[in-house]
Amino acid sequence: MTLTHLAPSELGTKDYWDSTYTHDLHTHSETPAHTGTTWFADSCASTKTLSYLHTVSPSLSRTSTTFLDLGTGNGEMLFLLRSPEGGFTGRMLGIDYSAASVELASRISAEKGYKETDVGFKEWDILDTGKEWEDGAFD
Questions:
Q1: How many alpha carbons fall within 13 Å on the CB side of residue 13?
Q2: Dihedral of the CA atoms 52, 136, 107, 46 (nearest 10)?
Q3: How far is the C-alpha of 105 from the C-alpha of 96, rounded, in Å?
């Protein structure tokens, strides 16, 4: 299989995501029901992921499995995992390199009544090799 180079895209820039989530923060402040874009909603990616997690063998503990969501955006995947439909109650952490994304996800999480120790969000650029990850292990 021959790999071809992908053309650069604005989707690959921090400026794009900062702008997107800054807009979503402003819109959410005016219209709380607006929680930003659910990426890959057209392919039902989140529900397919949840379905897989429910059927994986050996089964995952609903109470102790921990989740680390890289590029969390608005936190939608973690909220689905935490919902009654998802049923997972272990620690969850979403990280993103956009501070506006982290702020949006944190606001939505607080509005849903989640404690930061249960569903938390942090700003961190996984490509920044100069910054050590200070948190515990995840499943």
A1: 8
A2: -10
A3: 10
Strands lying side by side in the sheet with 67-70: 67-70, 92-96, 119-123
Distances (CA, A) of 25 to 32, 106, 123: 9, 11, 16
Q: Is 56 helix (H, G, I), strand (E, B) or coil?
A: coil
pLDDT in tens, 3-16: 577 777 888 788 99
Chain-centroid distance, C-alpha 124: 12
- Give residue 1's pLDDT: 54
CA separation for the pair 1, 86 (Å, rounded): 37
Handedness of CA 11, 80, 121, 136 (dihedral sign): negative
Q: What is the pLDDT of residues 39-84, one digit of tens each?
A: 777 778 899 999 999 999 899 999 999 999 999 999 999 999 999 9
Which residues, 6+ apart, have CB-to-CB distance to 50 below 8 Å? 80, 81, 85, 86
Task: Report the predicted TM-score, pTM, of the whole model to 2 decimal places.
Answer: 0.85
